[in-house]
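Troubleshooting log. The previous run stalled partway through. Resubmitting the same two chains, unchanged.
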Amino acid sequence: MSKPDKKDTDDSGLKLSKDLLEALAKFQEIELEDFQLEAPELEIIFEQGFAGQMMPKLKLPTAIAVGKPTAMLQAPFTLPIETYSGKIAQVKLGATRSEGGTRGRSLVVGGEVSPAFYTFERPTTHPPVVTLDVFDMEVPLSKAVKMHVKDVVGDPAAWAKLAVEKFGADMVTVHLISIDPLLKDATPKAAANTVENILQAVDVPLVIGGCGDAAKDTAVFAEICERFKGERFLISSVTRDMDVEKCGKFIKKNGHAVLSFTPMDMNLARELNRRLYDYVDKDDIIMDLTTAALGYGLDYAFTNMERARIAGLMGDGELAHPMSSGTTNAWAAREAWLKMDAQWEPRELRGPLWEVTTALTLLLAGVDLFMMMHPAAVKTLKETVKHLTGTGKADPAKFYDWVAAKP
Amino acid sequence: MSKKASVKELSPIAIYKLLPKTNCKECGEENCMALATKIVNREITIDSCKPLFKKEHEKAFNQLKEILKPPVKEVIVGVGDKARKLGGKLVMYRHEFTYTNSTAIAIDVTDEMPDELVTERIRKTESYTFEYIGNTLKLDMIAVRSTSNDPEKFKATVKKVSEATKLPLVLIALNTNVMEAGLMAAPKARPLIYAATKENWKDMAELALMYNSPLVASAPNDLDTLTSLAKTLLAYGVQDLVLDPGTFINEGLTDTINNFTMLRRAATKFGDELAGFPLMAVPMVAWANKGDSAKEIVEWREATTAAMLTVRYADIMVMHGTDGWALLPITVLRQNIYTDPRKPVAVAPGLKVFGTPDENSPVMFTSNFALTFYTVASDLESSKTNAYLIVVETEGSAIDSGVAGRKLTAERVAEALKASGIEGKVKHRKLIIPGKATRISGEIEELSGWKVQVGPRDSSEIPKYLTEKWQP
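Second attempt completed without errors. Output:
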């Protein structure tokens, strides 16, 4: 055998760092622990049918030649290229000093002109990005996640720093759980102070997450939008039962972007986007069509998103928005965190694989912004995006190595 | 030849016109029109119309077969009960129509593995089962690779494997002498032959014809050669093909995803018959050049590659890792992707009885979101719990999202309790509620008059909870 390549290129698809692996290796004695995640409204309505589908073009069947061929016949492959009348909106997130904010850099998502990673057709306009979840107070977390963040739970600024510096987050989502009237009922001012601390700690763009109480979220978002005018936060989220006019106005006035969040139903997404158009621009809206976990409705989420993206590309402007996914919802699946029979262990690997499988599935449906949790899942998703949008080529010479490989 | 209608455009009338129109009911349907409707919905095949096989209907039968032919050919590997269908895809996207024939997963063995290891890997593959909302997830095939390049060794291993398992086989060797030896050891097993390349296609085609077996045409990252090979093999008389455009990880991932996507689009949207065959992915390439990566890393990489190719059109995958933590997400994803997108997501609300409950048995409730209900039901069934479960109308919301979205309210719980007639079935008035519905526990007590006990947050803990906390 030849010496291992110095660059170790084969590992570039998954640079799970050694320390992470070592951490993952200590899986045995972990107890079943309670687990909770933010609860998005999950209401699945699947509609059948999809108008405007292309008709297959006529192509004559291959004629069977008389007698067996003695040399290879030639039948070059025709690239199946399509064109689309629509284009997905482009949304900028975060603002640098020159752009009116304080961030080290801003990001753009969307702008796609072909389905996700149909790069034989057109290149990806903007690679999907990852924002990591940070909570402003102690929340129950699965053990597989907790072992990576236990030192920073309760300190959102430190947590944000860890997410960016160690886990490679492109953005950070600040979940303001403490504002929940049923929990700490923290004031809008206190919530804004938390955001201030995170702005000081990291220089990436931020997503501002509420608690799910419509009235309280509105009050907190208003305070934060005004106090941090020009930072171009993504406000997560505006839902149908909120005062869309009020929210739309303070978001636009202060130069932020909005996450339009609906249950799994394309018509409800269209409706909320239409209502938002009265107050914000198309390029201010990212939509969240609801993410269900692998094994717990991912099929609906996947198809709903894939369909919405294709509809957007085919000219349905109300769905031509970048998509965000609350991929952390993958941890709602008990198979992600539950201690199971030995055959399925260790869950310290099963859990993050559950999250990244959910993410990769939705990546291929067209998601532009991933809200995620586990560092190993984030790492794999980012590497995959890098490969899918990079200039790397397959090396056919090595392909058949697997036939006689002795792993 | 007329333009072929896509699945969506096919009307029952078009089928009806070609049926005998005698309303003989032999097929079990009321009349020919009813049968035509079911044929269009792919709920029944034309083979159920027995009169069609008569000489006088031969032309109509052939026309029907042509109209109904899927853009991706269905290829059968193996024989008997465990024969596995590959491909047969009608559409590109799930929202167009249900996907047919889920991605087959083959686990590999080699002709240089010790006997015990081969036996162990076959046993692992056959015994892999996971119960998931009323389905049993399984693995499908054994792939036998020749790492020795020695015909005798390969022959002996194929013989041993075919005696040890009824699972369909994939035989993997690029050397035609080795392949021939393998086929001789399983002459009637109809294994999938891997592979015909631009170098060896002629001999492989002969073997495929001789052993009446499906054949993989392989051209790594070269679709021109791949469709040329398909054309050549068809002309040679091999009709059952599988296409292998190569699987590449890392830098090669873009080409891989593009190739699978282009082939499937060409077949389903552009009518390219040379692209219209099942596609083979090889996630196990992750093991071929693994360098000094830890086993878990390679298995993780293999699993994530398999996940992407399950979504992007692989009809069969060859895998090496057998660890449950890596295979479970893949088999669940496969089930999700291949499930009928038209099936309802909610179950009917009302009272469900588990085991043989009596007047002292516990009463619980859950949401009518299908996945929540099936999860709870499976936990109650597997633990042989005797209990009453009231399914509350939550418009298909899960418990936590139902509470948050006001789809699961105390009013609805109280109404469901009343409507269920449970008050006549038990003496007590204690309701165990899901831990995730704690927020509405007070209101439920107030509105229903039942005493509320907050149960576990996950239904897997119900049996333990009942043992420790239940007293009527």
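Takeaways: Chain B has 17 helices and 17 strands. The mean pLDDT of chain B is 93.
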